[in-house]
Amino acid sequence: MSTRPWIVDDDLWALIEPLLPPWPEKSPGPRPVADRHCLQGILYVLYNDIAWQLLPLELGFGSGQTCWRRLERWQQAGVFDQLHRILLAELNAAGRLDWSRACVDGSHIRAKKGAPRLVRRRSTGGRRAANTT
């Protein structure tokens, strides 16, 4: 393992770069920080478990705010879901996954909305007071 695991090597970058949405041509503001540098900044923050504001500018990853915005943009574009699928497929093809240890939990299964209830629920609302007269 590298002493700086937030550095993205060329092979991994070749997988990630095509998944990233293009930068808008008419975007306001200064020229954006390169996507690869932002990704390394995101990984640095996550690896070192620091606040976005504490990302050192000297590392050349851009500001923490810039990296956070890019992370949000990529998350909304579904980049990390696609990357996860690609990496799983590559690891599976190389025989590097042990599927006997895989499990599915409720956080990975979509809940059915509007499904009929099988059990009648007990009301938690207030009840009328008994008549004492």
From TrEMBL:
Residues 9-84 form the Insertion element IS402-like domain. Transmembrane segments: none annotated. Pfam families: DUF4096. Keywords: Plasmid. The keyword Lipid biosynthesis does not apply. This is IS5 family ISBcen20-like transposase.
